[in-house]
Amino acid sequence: MTEVTSTPRKNLLGMPKAKLEAFFAEIGEKPFRAKQVMQWIHQYGVSDFDEMTNISKSLRTKLKEICEITPPEVTYQNISADGTRKWVMRMPGGSSIETVLIPEGNRGTLCVSSQIGCALDCSFCSTGKQGFNRNLSTEEIVGQIFNAIASFEGIDRNKERPVTNVVFMGMGEPLLNFDNVMDAVNLMMDDLAYGISKRRLTVSTAGVVPAIDKMSEVTDASIAISLHAPNDELRNELVPVNKKYPIDVLMTSVKNYLSGLPDKRKATIEYTLLAGVNDRKEHAQQLIEVLKGLPCKINLIPFNPFPHSGYKKPSNNEVRRFQEWLTEGGYITTVRTTRGDDIDAACGQLVGRVDDRTKRSERYINMRQVNE
Ligand code: SAH
């Protein structure tokens, strides 16, 4: 008796054009078929091969046997009073990640996660306190935009675009999941998929320098740097990866990335304001010096508190004062307004449910108990 072994079906959701075309070539199909399938999946949100009406029945049958289009399972969706949407998506293995969509006028900014948890342990970030489980696959990253758009049931996708901007500012450090994130970035920017423009897709990093250096070889997306401190001593404490890649090395790497882009673009400098820690006048003055020569705009994020963080949010006046110092120093400086905090969708509040593989979450819980 011959035994039939079933190979797992290939999930087409995470395949950028080149990979999908190669796969179609492997199964003896023409490249334009790959393009058609891409449009069905990403532009029309179709996950059932039978709905792909410009594809022959025989090819559909073949695809159904060997492929699938499966986004992550949405286990929770909530819409905030201000229109912000948040999803919790369960990943194979049991952990969950979070995705947030922030509508603003005719813009819709999707904040996607790149890892389950985060390995970096920035001192003021609650995702970091959850520890780390694993990298997300490309389909798990792209699945977040697929699911977000699908939640707008019944819209005419040719006319309405719920997602116009994407920021990699959810859970995780995108540049520590380089290959999968770059495939997802390229797919999101592809006109056959989501057509997000390079100016509207931003990879945010705590400063993984070798990966920033590598980025220019594979993408021309925009970049944001989570700086949070204007000197190495303080940054070592807040963003420990700084011990490996200090501020001057980081600044050089970002300048190089920007100068390699085909257009004039600014980096975004993210700076979470922690009362009494990094929000004094001397910090603003140092920041102005540190950023000299870097085309950038600054985005201030008032700290979003979480239990036992040990940090406080500065008052609105203190935030405004810090903003003024930087504006006077010549920098375009915006303050990130807190959106969706009634549904825990604000920065640093994305925690999902991480099945921690490090001992970090345990240490944090122990520390909390000692301090209580
Ligand atoms: N690892 C990447 C992506 C995370 S982006 C990075 O560091 O850039 C999430 C942004 O929110 C980062 O700038 C992060 O430092 C900031 N953040 C984290 N916790 C926060 C908190 N509790 N309040 C305000 N901002 C926070």
Structural features, described:
The chain has two domains: 10-68, DNA polymerase, domain 1; 73-371, Alpha-Beta Barrel (TIM Barrel). The strands form three sheets. Strands 3-4-5-6-9-10-11-12-13-14 form a ten-stranded mixed β-sheet, with helices on one face. Strands 1-2 form a two-stranded parallel ribbon. A two-stranded antiparallel ribbon has the order 7-8. It is α/β, with parallel strands linked by helices and 372 residues long. The protein starts with 9 loop residues before the first strand and ends with a helix. The chain is built from twelve helices and 14 strands. The site of S-adenosyl-L-homocysteine has 17 residues, from β10 and β12.
Short summary:
The protein is of the alpha/beta class and 372 residues long. Helix content is 34%, strand content 19%.
Strand content: 15-25%
CATH fold call of the largest domain: TIM Barrel
Bound molecules: S-adenosyl-L-homocysteine
**If classified by CATH, what would the architecture of the largest domain be?**
Alpha-Beta Barrel
Principal-axes shape call: globular
How many structural domains does the protein architecture include? 2
Largest sheet: 10 strands, mixed
Count of alpha/pi helices = 12
Order of helices and strands: EHHHEEEEEEHEHEHEHEHHEHEHEH
Which regions contain 5 or more consecutive residues with pLDDT less than 50?
none
Mean pLDDT: 92
Structural class: alpha/beta
Going by CATH, what is the homologous superfamily of the largest domain?
Answer: Aldolase class I
Please identify the top-level CATH class of the largest domain.
Alpha Beta
Considering DSSP H and I runs of 4 or more, what fraction of the residues is helical?
A: 25-40%
Total beta-strand segments:
14
